[in-house]
């Protein structure tokens, strides 16, 4: 066979093989597409089935959660729930509520405390030596802010409070009357207009020389919150009364007392904490509710320049 004819035959054979391979590849690709489409439909049906199953399960979860929440709410009486809601609403307000006839005295910016914590701790001590002179208002503002001031958003305070009760309020007894510190307003609310310091420091002579008595009062009503009630209903541990309640409230007061001590040390003021007071007389003067309890008193004032620097 001539070379030319032989080459032509080989090319025809190769062309035929290429055509056959191309057809096989096309057939395989068509089959692959059909398989993919079939699998896609199957996956879609399975996904839809799973989705429907999940929705049914989620509906069941929601229903069970609602039932359990309703069961939990059923453990409370309506007055108990309303009281907690009212207190939550009051605590969430941007400013403390006041009456139309209430008298406020805005405090200046607290005096800046430049002393380090190390130095303040070293200088912290109980001092019963006072000159009898009133301390500057920016120093009083610093004492009150250190103990119960707002230092970040959501009305969080400078001192810790168990369960965030914020049950402790500060009252200032000074020459121009009795005032309640309002942290959100950084102001004093007028309570009583006469100088009543003698009724808060009559036990010892040196107490009469303190320019201010900071009275720490805990309100038992603020300890009845959703969190404490949830613990009570779930774990049978009652934080709203009894020993656990007293312990938590004492811790809250102690944190504020230490803050007053440290701020006083940082500003060179004298400070002493005590528990004894004519409770019935003091409560009447401060117009306290039955649920409010005097927990401690911090007497503060300037140090005397000498042992003769006293006015009795």
TrEMBL record:
Gene3D superfamilies: NADH Oxidase. The keyword Coiled coil applies. Residues 122-301 form the Nitroreductase domain. Keywords: Coiled coil. It comes from the Bacteria. GO terms for molecular function: oxidoreductase activity. Residues 4-39 form a coiled coil. The keyword Coiled coil applies. PANTHER family: NITROREDUCTASE MJ1384-RELATED. This is Nitroreductase family protein. It comes from Candidatus Aphodousia faecigallinarum. The lineage of its organism: Bacteria, Pseudomonadati, Pseudomonadota, Betaproteobacteria, Burkholderiales.
């Amino acid at each position: 066979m001539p070379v030319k004819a032989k080459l032509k035959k080989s090319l025809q054979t190769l062309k035929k093989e290429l055509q056959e391979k191309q057809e096989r590849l096309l057939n395989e690709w068509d089959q692959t597409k059909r398989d993919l489409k079939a699998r896609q439909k199957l996956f879609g049906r399975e996904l839809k089935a799973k989705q429907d199953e999940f929705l049914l399960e989620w509906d069941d979860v929601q229903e069970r959660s609602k039932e359990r929440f309703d069961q939990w709410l059923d453990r409370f009486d309506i007055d108990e729930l309303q009281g907690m809601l009212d207190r939550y609403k009051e605590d969430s307000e941007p400013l403390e509520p006041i009456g139309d006839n209430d008298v406020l005295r805005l405090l200046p910016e607290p005096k800046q405390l430049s002393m380090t914590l190390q130095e303040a701790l070293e200088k912290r001590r109980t001092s019963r030596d006072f000159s009898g002179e009133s301390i500057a208002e920016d120093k009083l503002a610093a004492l009150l802010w250190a103990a119960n001031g707002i230092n970040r958003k959501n009305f969080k305070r400078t001192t810790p409070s168990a369960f965030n009760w914020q049950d402790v309020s500060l009252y200032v007894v000074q020459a121009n009357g009795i005032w309640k510190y309002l942290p959100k307003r950084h102001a004093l609310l007028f309570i009583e207009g006469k100088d009543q310091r003698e009724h808060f420091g009559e036990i010892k002579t040196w107490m009469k020389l303190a320019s201010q008595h900071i009275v720490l009062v805990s309100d038992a009503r603020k300890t009845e919150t959703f969190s404490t009630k949830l613990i009570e209903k779930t774990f049978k541990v009652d934080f709203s009364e009894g020993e656990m309640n007293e312990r938590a409230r004492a811790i809250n007061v102690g944190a504020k007392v230490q803050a007053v001590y440290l701020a006083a040390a940082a500003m060179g003021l004298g400070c002493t904490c005590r528990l004894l007071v004519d409770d019935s007389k003091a409560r009447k003067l401060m117009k306290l509710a039955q649920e409010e309890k005097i927990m401690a008193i911090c007497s503060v004032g300037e140090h005397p320049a000498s042992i003769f620097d006293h006015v009795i």
